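Structure tokens please, single chain.
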Amino acid sequence: MEDGGRHEENSGEPEEDFSPSSAALAGQAGPEDGGKASDIPLREIGEIQGNGHLSSSSSPRSSSPSLPTEEYPRRLQQAEDPCGRSENGRRQHCAELRESDAGKRVRLAGWVQTIRDHGGLLFLDLRDREGITQIVCEPERENLAKKCSLPGFARSSVEAVRTDGQEPEKFSKILPRLKEESVLSVFGTVRLRPPEARNGKMATGGIEVLAEGIFVHNLAATLPFPIDDAADKVNDELRLSYRYLDLRRRKNLWRLRLRHRVTQVVRHYLDGQGFIEIETPLLFKNTPEGAREFLVPSRLNPGSFYALNQSPQQYKQMLMVAGVERYYSLARCFRDEDLRADRQPEFTQIDLEMSFIQREDIYELIEGLLAALWRDEQLQEIREKLGRAEFLPEWSSPSQNELKTPFRRMDFGLRSQLSASDAPLPFATPERATAMDNYGSDKPDIRWEFLIQDVGEIFRNSECKVFRDCLAKGGVIKALNLKGLADLTSGEHQRCEELARSLGAGGLAYIKCTGGAWKSPIVKFFSEEEKQQLGEFLGIEEGDLILFAADFWERACAILGRLRLEGIGLLLKRGKDQSASSRFEFLWVENFPLVTYQEEEKRYEATHHPFTAPLPEDECGLMDALENVRSQHYDLVLNGVELGGGSIRIHEEELQRRIFEEVLRIPPEVVEDRFGYMLKAFRYGTPPHGGIALGLDRLVAMLAGTDSIRDVMAFPKTQSGQELMTGSPTPVPEQLLRDLRIRSTAGEGLKGKTRKNSEADGAEG
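Here you go.
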């Protein structure tokens, strides 16, 4: 070896080369190219010998309290670039160097990933957002033996003043304070690792950099948790409190880059389709219907409030009235709801609207957009970096990254539209299945062809009293064959029964086909003819598990729909049907009911939103058969997750007013106050139009292979709506409330309360 030292054979975690665009990010701005001199952190500089950039004679070691003004820019430039410039005049990133770079003098900067002291020979793995490079240091070597400590400069004027008066330190004395995640700049020479020490799993595994100068920008404190995959086992609240550390983890940085790339592809595609990106206001007005809104008091209009937009719905319709014809935005949306497991109070939508179109035009546009994402090579590279390529074989090569279009279409499946109540439903196949009737969900996961079947006709005259009585009351008998799950354990069976009861079932009827026999408490009530018909209808075989639901149609579908997903999860846990889980299956669900009856309020509310147009052939039912009226609403579903939704809108004043006042029973004065401007606009020539909003967070999460949208947001909130890093939300001074003419009912005794108590009390405006 060149220096007679020992080499580290396999340093650091396997690392890969990063995106080709990273070279543009490698330079650092100094005072000469726009950087702020006052922002330069100065700590400890390793002396460079013989390179003409920084030596002991150029270090400000004089006891003089100030430096001449004319010397200040030059000295700051040296401090900004203490390790000199590399041969090509820029900083390299830590995944850039290869064996062909051997002999080059380079400059790297980043965080210390690991430190390994081999007694007189120190190995540092230096990491930036692009990757890792191994640094070799010889602390007693002459060029690292002296340190120039510059921790304090007066920054209030153009003169730099020494404030510490320290003498130079040896690198060996600084080493004990050097911890993982400390920030360094390193200047040195690239050299080849010996063959036995090369790491083929790292992009830079064939080289290392012999340090000739080290600049310590910042010494890190002891970390609250490791900056690697082991942090996944750390409490979520702790990681969110130190989110800036959590984001340093490789996979989290890649998730942010994935999100960035998705937005770039979306913008490029929509621009090519003639769309105009327009920002709409976040501060809107409170409107009835829909989710609860965040309210923002107006100081200039005492007693009045803005509402943060749930979506740009009304604004984008006004843009269609204005003649924009094709609009889109990456819209920030806000909803003040009780957060479920995977919801956030603020989120982002790919929001768009088009004039003079029908549903098929929307379908074609969105399918083209998603196909463009799937074709994008940079997205493929990023997903591979996230380690998900092995689960997504359709992305494994350029010839397999085309989405199959058009996507499958599926009817929502209103009971009234399926068949008359006295006629048996036909055996369902995937080609003619409907979402609710055969999957028990308005967002079915079609990767598995387990279909819910109507078996009521088989048991219409059965001796099984539960089935017979249910049919007599107008209910249905539904059955689901979960093939290969007859080995259900008692604990798993109990879990399934609890799920069924939580959805309103009285119990869970089942059949296990095992050992050549049907095992079930209810089989004894079946006639031989019923068993034969059931076996043929459901294709029952050895190893199958049959689940039943006897109830009214909506509840029976919902019960078996939830048990279907539970069964799929149990099959995957057993290692069965794994290939299906690796696919992306898109689906359009359409023909939703226009309105849904709310039993508690004894009125109808819009299933989607009140601006959704009914199907023209169903408009006659607006007066006497609302439950049968279908809407021109459509949802895009991916693997059982609603990725987006949209509709063709109402564009006529008369029909829109009728929906508001006669169907939704919104008082006319409220209609005029909240929507009067829209009804007025419709009088002045409004084109037919429609649109859709895709959940950007959800799309990126699915591409990243994570179940939670929180993982692809830079600074997410907890389920209670808190942002733990900054500690928001917080109480505000009473003076602010007075300025806004607001009195908080939680204000009494708030002083002195703990933050936890004050949050628990809540506040009303």
